[in-house]
């Protein structure tokens, strides 16, 4: 199966999904109060979990299959774990 995003892009997308989930949960807490757990808060948490699962599955090095760090800053030219080149064209 051909990936439409390279692992580094998947890493960014996974981070984005987690942030969106956090925003969702945060808005829920503002809107419905800190002491109640509203279904929208649960949905926000589920979005965060989905982001982590997506990153865990997709954000992997194609050379050694190791998991890429979500927290790596910038746009590295090589995978940090094995030093394999990070290709943009697949
Ligand atoms: Zn690797």
UniProtKB/TrEMBL annotation:
Q: Which domain of life is it from?
A: Bacteria
| UniProt keyword annotation of Membrane present | yes
Q: Which residues cross the membrane?
A: 12-30, 36-57
Keyword annotations from UniProtKB, A to Z: Membrane, Transmembrane, Transmembrane helix
Protein name per UniProt:
DUF2892 domain-containing protein
Please spell out the taxonomic lineage of the organism that makes this protein: Bacteria, Bacillati, Bacillota, Clostridia, Eubacteriales
């Amino acid at each position: 199966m051909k990936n439409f995003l390279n692992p580094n892009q998947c890493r960014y997308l996974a981070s984005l999904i987690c942030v969106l989930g956090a925003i969702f949960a945060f808005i829920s807490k503002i809107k419905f109060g800190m002491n109640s757990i509203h279904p929208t808060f649960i949905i926000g948490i589920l979005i965060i979990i989905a982001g982590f699962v997506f990153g865990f599955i997709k954000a992997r090095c194609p050379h050694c299959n190791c998991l890429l760090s979500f927290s790596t800053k910038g746009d590295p030219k090589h995978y940090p774990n094995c030093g394999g080149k990070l290709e943009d064209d697949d």
